[in-house]
Amino acid sequence: MKRTFHMHVWYFTVGTSYRLKRFFDIVLSLAALAALSPFLLAVAVWVKLDSSGPVIYRQVRVGRFGRHFRFYKFRTMRVDADRIKQRLMAENQSADGVIFKMKRDPRVTRIGRYLRKFSIDELPQLFNVLIGDMSLVGPRPPLPDEVRLYTLEDRKRLNVVPGLTCIWQISGRSDIPFSKQVQLDKEYIASRGFWQDCRILVKTVPAILTGRGAY
């Protein structure tokens, strides 16, 4: 009987924490979209004038428990970027080789370099947060091809809703090797809570403004 009571308390605590996180995701993403709408429109025009192709880049990403969803960002690359990626794999600068990172990626457009440096290209993901595919704070959503290379330990990243920012985004971003990213994401999952999320969101602002590790 005592064990059952403790289980009910645990389920209530977890459920309340999830609902509180979701509430703030909706409120803050709506507020951000409203406040940034003129800026987002200006960026959209800039992307359209800079190179041919759609303003918004849509991509399939992997969310909580392996569920696929459509992920949005401002287009920062040539329209044939996915097709020529295979030719560039030999120049992958990610230490572990699971994710693809290249500091001077020839696929990136002129405006794309600025958008990526200050994470402006990620702002359309506020829509993903609003509809529940993502959260403001959580491990970044991986590509299906990356997940196929995951170990069982790596797959622990998929136990929570992915987010716009997390611990490794405020600790060096793409300069951090994949194995360390997984470790930091697991640390977040183990210690996540309302105040932890607030701390990460506050520290994300200077991390974005400095542009360190963004490419």
Give an account of the 3D structure.
With 215 residues, this protein is mainly α. It is built from seven helices and four strands. The chain has helices at residues 2-50, 81-88, 110-117, 125-131, 144-147, 178-191, 194-210; strands spanning 56-62, 68-74, 135-137, 163-165. Strands 1-2 form a two-stranded antiparallel ribbon. It has a two-stranded parallel sheet with strand order 3-4. The longest helix is centred in the N-terminal third of the chain and has 49 residues, at 2-50.
Multimerization status? single chain
Strand content: 5-15%
Give the total of beta strands. Answer: 4
Order of helices and strands: HEEHHHEHEHH
Question: Which short descriptors sum up this protein?
Answer:
single chain, 215 residues, mainly alpha, two-stranded antiparallel ribbon, 7 helices
